[in-house]
Specification:
Layout (H helix, E strand, L loop, with lengths): L8 E6 L23 H10 L5 E6 L4 H12 L6 E5 L4 H9 L8 E6 L7 H12 L4 E7 L4 E5 L2 E6 L5 E3 L3 E4 H10 L7 H10 L6 E4 L10 H13 L14 E10 L6 E3 L2 E3 L13 H14 L4 H5 L11 H14 L2 E11 L9 H11 L4 E7 L5 H4 L3 E12 L1
Parallel strand pairs: 1-2, 1-4, 2-3, 5-10, 14-15
Antiparallel strand pairs: 4-9, 5-8, 5-9, 6-7, 11-16, 12-13, 14-16
Helix pairs in contact: 1-2, 5-6, 8-10, 10-11
The structure holds cytidine-5'-triphosphate and magnesium ion.
Amino acid sequence: MTVEPVPTVAVVVVAAGSGTRLGAGAPKALVGLDRHTILRHALDGVFAAPSAQVIVVAPEGHEGAALTDALAAAGAHHDLVSVVPGGPTRQASVAAGLAAVWGDVEVVLVHDAARALTPPAVFERVIRAVRAGAPGVLPVVPVVDTIKRVDGAVVTGAVDRAELSAAQTPQGFDRAVLDAAYGAAEREYTDDAALVGDHIAARGGRITTVAGDPLSFKVTTPDDLVRARSLLAQHPHPSPTSAPVTAPRVGIGTDVHGFGGEGALWLAGLEWPGEPALSGHSDGDAVAHAIVDALLAAAGLGDIGTHFGTDHPEYAGAHAEAFLARTVDLLRTAGWRVGNVSVQVQANRPRFAARRAEAEAALSAALGGASVAVSATTTDGLGFTGRAEGVAAFAVALVLPA
Ligand code: CTP
Ligand code: MG
């Protein structure tokens, strides 16, 4: 029988928030990224690091679901896992987790479950720095945007980016320092590094930094969720080396709409007066919809139903421009830009020859200027397009790292 060593490191994973800004209708940590939740992904990162005690601070009433995720992530290390209910604030949730830390633990990491894709290497860097004697360790990434100081709508000054860093988790602490700081805290702090930093400043203590990781971004808004899902779709196990999207990707999309809609025909982003209209939830523009599917497929972002289905009433009756502009936004959020698009229409009518350049210009404008080629063909009288029952469109798209 092998005797496992008593852990001297504990990781408190706070997962008790409601996820107001995500607005998913369920506690954020329990929202799925793929077939696994945000919490499960966060815990996979935790358990890839050296064996530590792991305390999951769960949303009250959801302890069972959190335990299921924790046990699945822990595998053979299931005896290292415990779940406690959280409190009304993040700080209260961390305090609840700290109360469950075992006696022999010397180093405590506090980690946001919402940073679901944090690479194991970040945990290792933080643990190493605390073991080397730092009372508190904060993983940071450089601030890439230019930052301005503003007063209402007026810019009042510039802030030197070199002086700024974005704070991430896991934040690591000497256990005694963290316990003492939490025991003494008399107000709410934005994070543990701020709380501990305040406490140790009186004795000249400082929080130090290690490199964080771009993959450690916090899932906060629906756009962050799209980004996390897309990263997972491209790299089921993102790692610091596989993270940057560097290679172009292609996607394919097709769509069919039947004639029989109300009003005018809209196709390839153009209105075609005098031509029979296509039917559909939106304007039935099969050309635009095929392009959307090709772009989403190329970026690994699902398909048109994922983002524009009938549960999105704002797209009822919408034209190509709205679909394509939103698709470009989704791609940008996931780190992609449109390379080029080629789309072919199969239809007896309308006749594209005279308006092909106009259609290409309209679609290109809706895609932020990307090159779009439109071709059209008939099907020699065969099939539903040959019988003039409807229109089919086939698109391929290339996306490039933004
Ligand atoms: N958290 C917690 N207990 C709370 C509030 C937050 O454990 N009372 C956790 C969240 O689950 C999350 C982390 O702290 O993993 C960071 O918080 P945040 O991203 O703000 O999550 P939420 O508070 O859930 O989201 P929102 O602020 O949008 O409601
Ligand atoms: Mg919050």
